[in-house]
């Protein structure tokens, strides 16, 4: 039995809370910034609907004390907004699992975590907000969370062991795994730019653009120490080409809803780190300002 606080019970936070609930072993609290009322998770394969049973807090003032586990699932750019919750929930023995896209989890989260352990996580879950208080798991990928092999990762795997909603996998080369996922997220930035779901990758011109974007992202990845050959670009673009045309991405959902975009953690980072290494990133040089401008509201 562990105390788990889920900070940011949106798409991924709800699936993480569902997994914790499914184990039947833990005490779960949801930490939101507004009261979403009841929350439920729908599985699009089985049409199973599960209500989340955990209590929902709406302010850090309501936190009773530090938690053993914090599952942080706010968007990257919302991390500083969650500082109050992190301060109330974290002490040095807490583990904060950063369930966020990007490759900068520790730099982003550690400043708010009161010396807690920060476990970066790569989230391979396709979860879409499908109505007030409702999140649907799209089973176009099998739901997996990758964490670095080591004691914290092993404990996290034990925490969610047996939960059908999520499988936790330990990876020995986390840098490579994180950049592989980041490359898919960079490609998904094209959905947000076009305002269209995966159908957009059926266009030959967008496919070509996606390939160029993946290729420059992988060049930056290699400079950052990832073992990702240029040939991986075809395979990663292929994931999007093979998707059902109605599959989206979290950055597209925000774009369609007129919300701020997670552009810096997913696309801006390619341009920023490319510049640091002297690697040209011509596609990102155009895409990033457009996403940033769309994010301005
Ligand atoms: N959705 C997906 O399929 C995937 C997402 N990811 C990554 O997971 C992370 C989370 O994304 P996702 O779940 O889609 O995002 P959502 O926008 O669905 O969820 C974020 C949640 O955090 C809440 N929130 C924001 N600020 C605060 C705060 N200060 N205190 C408490 N709660 C707060 C939001 O509240 P409000 O409702 O008020 O905005 C929302 O409920 C991102 O890094 C994303 O890239 C990774 C893989 C797949
Ligand atoms: C589901 C996936 C992999 C698509 O890019 C994702 O990470 C997201 O939506 O943020």
Largest sheet: spatial strand order: 5-2-1-6-7-8-11-12
- What string gives the helices and strands in order? EHEEEEEHEHEEEEHEHHHHHH
Helix content bin? 40-55%
Largest sheet: 8 strands, mixed
CATH architecture designation of the largest domain: 3-Layer(aba) Sandwich
Q: List all distinct small molecules, including ions and cofactors, that are bound in this structure.
A: NADPH dihydro-nicotinamide-adenine-dinucleotide phosphate, ketopantoate
Number of helices: 10
Strand proportion: 15-25%
Q: Look at the structure and name the CATH superfamily of the largest domain.
A: NAD(P)-binding Rossmann-like Domain
Q: Give the CA-CA distance, first to last residue.
A: 43 Å
How many DSSP-defined strands? Answer: 12
Output the CATH class name of the largest domain.
Alpha Beta
Indicate the overall shape: globular
Using only C-alpha atoms, the radius of gyration works out to: 18 Å
Unreliable segments (pLDDT under 50, ≥5 consecutive)? none
Tally of separate domains: 2
Average pLDDT over all residues: 97
Structural class: alpha/beta
CATH topology of the largest domain: Rossmann fold
Keywords:
297 residues; alpha/beta; N-(1-d-carboxylethyl)-l-norvaline Dehydrogenase, domain 2; 8-stranded mixed β-sheet; 4-stranded mixed β-sheet; 10 helices; globular; binds NADPH dihydro-nicotinamide-adenine-dinucleotide phosphate; binds ketopantoate; oxidoreductase; 2-dehydropantoate 2-reductase activity; KPA_reductase
